Amino acid sequence: MLKKSFKLKIIAPTVAIFVILVIVINVFLSLRFSSISSDLISEKLVANANSLIHFLDNSRESTRAAAISMARYPNAINAINERDREELLRIFTPTHDLYGVNYYTITDSDGIVLARTHDPDNYNDSVINQQNVMDAVDGMISSYFESGTVVKVSIRTGAPVYDFDGSLIGVISAGVRFDTDCTVKDLKELLNSDVSIFLDDVRIATTIHKDGQSIVGTTMDPRIVDIVIEGKNEYSGESNILGEMYIAFYKPLVNAQGEAYATFFTGTPVDDLIERSNISIRDGIILGLSGLAVSIVLLYFIISTISKPVTVLSHNMTRIADGDLDVEIDIKSEDEIGILGKSLQKIAFILHKLLHEIKNMISEHEKGNIDHHLNADEFSGGYKDLANDILALAAVSTKDQLTGIPNRRSFDNRLDMEWSRAKRDKTPLSVLVMDIDNFKLYNDTFGHQQGDLALQTVAASAADMLKRSTDFIARWGGEEFTILLPVTDSQHAAMVAEKLRAGIESTNIPCSDEKADKITVSIGVNTQIPAQDSKIESFMAKADSALYKAKNTGRNKVAVEEDP
Question: pTM of the entire structure?
Fold first, then answer.
């Protein structure tokens, strides 16, 4: 009796399935042709809608990237300072393709146009009425669908331009325009469907032609106007365009004033879709039958060669996909399958090591040990990039970005750890809540940049004065800092607090204004040996209460409140 081989077990049912599948497909397509056509039309509509929305989103991001990047470009800043229109055109025009935008409008700080890359001879007029420019003059970066002096329909992003001393000197508005024949032609290639742009309810650009003539200037169906322009809603469905039925999608473009001032249309004639469906079904049947014949011939030879190592490799890949990274892949061949097996083994090892390091780092961070990090230099290529990205993310989540010391989240984790340790060991735990005196007045008087410098100086000075490796300082929020002193009684905590107060009082804050080189702090101190029913919230509240005592008794003081 002929023994069935593994290859035959694969080939026989596979061929049978192919034969049955081809028969079922033919019968099914014959019976359900109209239904399939309808489904294909619906899928085409959804695909076009998604692609168009994706195009608009990409256009918005392109304008943001262009405006923000060029607003920080030193040569551009110098040219704006010097009001050098020729230099501005020379700098900005070559970057259109780099950022995927069509034009720039560069203005001074009052919204007066210094240069337009899309209309070089048109300048010195005001565009302050454009919302993106208005926002940029107010220091904000914003993107809107807007109509301008030259470009009627576009997405624009305005970004403020600051001089090297921090003063506002101008605005860069980057845009992608939609009101051109080039735009609709490019979109037609992307969507494989006709495209039109409406300004209000009038077509101003289109790929649709009637009797060899573009239908630019025709208007939108009033029924659709009520939905898209008046109601500001998207519309998907049938649309009669000059007597021809389209399956269409209309996307309103809403400006900063909340008006649907323009509309994107994409659609395909229903007759074209049905014809394409017929061709696809016919080609599918022919291809299926041809593929069946060829597959039966080739299947035996392919399976004979690769069935065993592929089965082993597939099993190991499944284990890795399921999270089992302790895989030993035993493939001896030196061909592509063998190389793939070795590569997969290497991937499993690297992922195992990376996940192990990440888990250790997360565990240590949850304990408050934020200085524990994985070693990115142990990895290479994309894995090293991933490790560096994880380190950057960890730094963002654990460090205060202004002062560089731990943030409140890190402090909370460290406090939980030290609280549990003090409760277990029955040792005193002290906390200092330190607040910069009259900081709002300091900020208002000398500016936010000087205020930031004061916060950085106070943080650095306080961190330098804490000598023990177990002492922990964090920025609590605003101008307030917290310091944890494990195994420290009330008397020594007060001494540390006084040392910090005096040290900061004697620290010089870098500034050209002599009145801004000094700053003082008030500090509240609380010490407790945590009992089983003690609450961290109460512990911190009493330190905060002590801080208010120091504030209310004249500032630049240390106040101590000790728990039993």
Answer: 0.46
